Amino acid sequence: MSDHGDALRERVEELEAAVERLSNEFDVAIQVARNASDEADELAEELAHERQRRKELESELEKITDDRELLNTVRRNAAGDRSAQAAICIQSLTRQARRNAKNRASMDAEGCLDTLQGNIDRTNTYDVFERAEELVENTEVVWYQKEDRSSKKNSRLIVNLDGGDLPAQVAGVDLTEEATA
Hints:
Distance between the termini: 125 Å
Helix content: 55-70%
Number of helices: 3
Oligomer: single chain
Radius of gyration: 42 Å
Strand content: 5-15%
Strand order of the largest sheet: 1-3-2
C-alpha cells in the first residue's frame, strides 16, 4: 500500500501544483483583463473627448465661415462706399484748386477725415486716395502721393487742374458741386 500511497501522494502533489499554476495563470488573466478594461475605458473617454473637440472645431469653423461671409459682404459694400468717398474728396479738392492760383490742391489723411466729416476710419483714408486715383484714370490730374513713414511730409491726394480734364462726374458725384459727406 505504500507504493499506492506514494503514488497517490505524488498525484495529489501534481494536482496541487497544477491548481497553483492554473490559479497563477488565472490571476494573470484577470489582471490582463482588468488592464484591457482600464485601457478600453481610457480609450472610450479619449474618444468622447475627441468627439467633443471635433464638435467644437466644427462650430468654430462654422462661425469663421459666417464671419468671412460677413466680412466679404462688408468689403463689397465698402468698395462702393470708397468710390463715393473718393469722389467727395476729389470734388472738395477740385473746388479748392479752382480757388487757388496754382489750380492745384491736396489733402492728407486729416483733410480726408474733415472732408468726409469723420464718416471714415483714419486707417481707410489711403484706400480712399487710391480709389480716387483709380476713378479718374489720369494721374496728371488726380494722384495719390505716398510718402515713407520716416518722411516729414504726409501721404496725400492731389488734384492738379492744369494736368488735364477732370470728368464731370465720378462715382455718381458731380465734380462741379460743393463737397458733402
